[in-house]
From TrEMBL:
Keywords: ATP-binding, Nucleotide-binding, Transport. It holds the Pfam family ABC_tran. Residues 4-227 form the ABC transporter domain. GO terms for molecular function: ATP binding; ATP hydrolysis activity. This is ATP-binding cassette domain-containing protein. InterPro entries: AAA+_ATPase, ABC_transporter-like_ATP-bd, ABC_transporter-like_CS, P-loop_NTPase.
Amino acid sequence: MAILTVEDLSKSYGRIQALKKVSFSVPEGSVFGILGPNGSGKTTMLGTIMDILKPTSGTYKLFDEAPTELHRRRIGTLLETPNFYHYLSGVKNLEIAAEIKQHGKEDIPRVLEMVDLTKRKDSKFSTYSLGMKQRLAIASCLLGNPKVLVFDEPTNGLDPVGIAEIRELMKTLYREGKTIIMASHLLDEVEKVCTHVAILRKGELITSGDVNEILSNEDMVEVGAKNSERLIEVLQKMPGQTRVTKEGGMVKVFYPVGTADLEAINNFCFGKDIILNHLILKKKSLESRFFELTNN
């Protein structure tokens, strides 16, 4: 089942097009990152999904159905800084949040434990670090045990310790079967946390799919010869490569990032009586792939 399906979604503010016919699908049980520089349309996308904003055109579905308020009640969201009371404790703030969301208070001990705040539940919110404040906000999202969580820049403004805490929490929630949709401008975050990604640039979808395929942190070399089966057989015996694949008639050989040597590949194949007619380094690294996608 697709948790979210977006079809040709557009959003305009006068002459400014924040989203331009964006389409992608979020599979159940994934951590789906909406990645892009500031101003790429990430927050607009999340706001539209949660019915804070109305799309100019296009459609979207939640849980494979036309979205309703009932569907949205099954989603825990953190789209902006929550309005916690600084003079109240963590647990008191969650009690207020539970009442607003019409969830029982009996769920509070569970969510505090999940975000590792049980020992500080009676401390005033004003004494919390930024990372703890963000974890309390996530605890509020977890009230009622939603299967789907939507976060907008969940590590924004945090120090390295806070960032590590939130990322580890994301991984824990994923392992427990939650589907997470999160916007981020941080390439590193998407690489370390997400299973799938959609990359936006100035409101346009550049690409979407499996993180390992789109943001490959490997050198990938496209190689061609008259006899592709023989070429694959030879390349599989070449030292240093991690795997050899054939996709759409093109042979691809992969190496740990920064280790692909085109001259060595050419010489190795020539020594095995194979004349190459195609030899191109396609992906240099995760970072160069991201800049290639967002800046071209």
